[in-house]
Write a structure and sequence with these properties.
Helix content is 37%, strand content 13%. By secondary structure, it is of the alpha/beta class. α2 (39-59) runs parallel beside α8 (236-274), α3 (72-82) packs parallel to α4 and α5 (124-131) packs parallel to α6 (153-163). The chain starts with a strand and ends with a helix.
Length: 375
């Protein structure tokens, strides 16, 4: 039995062959504790440094600013719970990932949410008023994980700094890195979350990029590795894999993004031809090139996918307790779609279709036919 067409790359991606090849030696004959002074340790430390450099280059950072962590949840928690804030007030968008939401609430400070429009994009006019009052931290994701909407992070950062030059700006870029160009300095952010399994590295590795000069306390304690910010022996194989994934993305980011964008638009055309009442999220704003989020009036997204087993995708209608950028990677309707002002009955018909490197034109044609039969 053949596997279904995979249109759930925003949930997770397969490990790319080049990434697997890069990490395999560190799962076998190559080994060593990077903190050891002998040849094995020096070789491991050199591999870590090379991986850090690849991560840094992809996001416009320096090698010494990269802290390897286990994934998005740890990176978000380290950023939000570990940051030394100049004042006890955090401003965040109303459509953040649960990992950010939970960490902010755990911090126990005043929280203010920036509202979004029908495209899940932060409304800059309203945000300007809320950011006039100095904040201790601003945290805004770069790409909304469900709709694919790209947030105006640079503009929001500038507004926050105009009122409070010492504000700490965190950006969860889990869905954006490897799909669109990301430059943390151009974005004006101090802390940047990266998640490997969103762009062809294995699950279990990510990074928090910490701009030089930003005060951060560790949230776990031990041997003091990684400048004391994340103690524990570094997982060399996984770090090498993340570095390889970053190098892979950097090599063909523009070309591959353009290819996926073309296929995404083809998918939208085919679906719209067969179902003219479809509603598309993010139609009027910048979005990830691989992500198509639609709502089918008077239908259940889950029922559509159940009737189209040839396609592996996600719905936006279920309430998921996901705190690790995990399998379904969805936020409750009351979160993202509710913040967009979408009626719960309409939200029930949501589908998130996310393309990847392996997606072909034939996949798109067949997936569209299967989904339309399900509708």
């Amino acid at each position: 039995m053949s596997m279904p067409i995979y249109l759930d790359h925003n949930a997770t991606t397969p490990v790319h062959p080049a990434v697997r090849e890069a990490m395999l030696p560190w799962l076998g004959g190559q080994f060593g504790n990077p903190s050891s002074s002998h040849a094995y340790g020096r070789e491991a430390a050199a591999a870590l440094a090379q991986a850090r450099e690849a991560v840094a280059q992809l996001v416009g950072a320096s090698q010494d600013e990269v802290v390897f962590v286990s994934g998005g949840t740890e990176a978000d928690n380290l950023a939000i719970l570990g940051a030394v804030l100049p004042r006890d007030r955090i401003v965040m968008s109303a459509v953040e990932h649960p990992a950010v939401e939970a960490a902010v609430l755990a911090r126990g400070v005043e929280v203010e949410r920036l509202q979004v429009d029908r495209n899940a994009r932060v409304e800059l006019v309203a945000a300007r008023g809320r950011l006039q009052r100095p904040a201790g931290m601003l945290t805004v994701m770069l790409a909304q994980n469900e709709t694919g909407t790209l947030q105006p992070v640079a503009e929001l950062s500038a507004l926050a700094r105009a009122a409070a030059p010492d504000v700490v700006v965190h950006c969860d870029a889990a869905q954006a890195v490897g799909k669109v160009p990301v430059d943390m300095r151009a974005l004006g952010v101090d802390l940047l979350t990266i998640v490997g399994h969103k762009f062809y590295a294995p699950v279990g590795i990510g990074a928090l990029v910490v701009r030089r000069g930003v005060a951060l306390h560790p949230i776990s304690h031990g041997g003091g590795q990684q400048r004391g910010l994340r103690s524990g022996t570094e997982p060399v194989a996984l770090a090498v894999a993340l570095g390889a994934a970053c190098s892979l993305a950097a090599a063909d980011l523009v070309r591959e993004s353009a290819r996926q964008l073309e296929l995404r638009e083809l998918l939208w055309q085919r679906l719209r031809q067969g179902a003219p009442t479809l509603v598309r999220s993010g139609a009027d704003v910048p979005t990830l090139p691989n992500t198509l989020h639609v709502r089918v009036p008077d239908r259940s997204g889950a029922a559509i996918l159940a009737a189209a087993p040839e396609v592996a995708a996600s719905t936006g209608s279920a309430c998921h307790a996901v705190l690790d950028h995990g399998p379904d990677d969805m936020v409750a309707v009351g979160g993202v779609l509710g913040a967009m002002g979408v009626d719960p009955r309409e939200a029930a018909g949501a589908l998130r279709l996310s393309l990847g490197r392996s997606t072909t034109r034939d996949d798109i044609e067949r997936a569209a036919q299967a989904l339309l039969r399900g509708m």
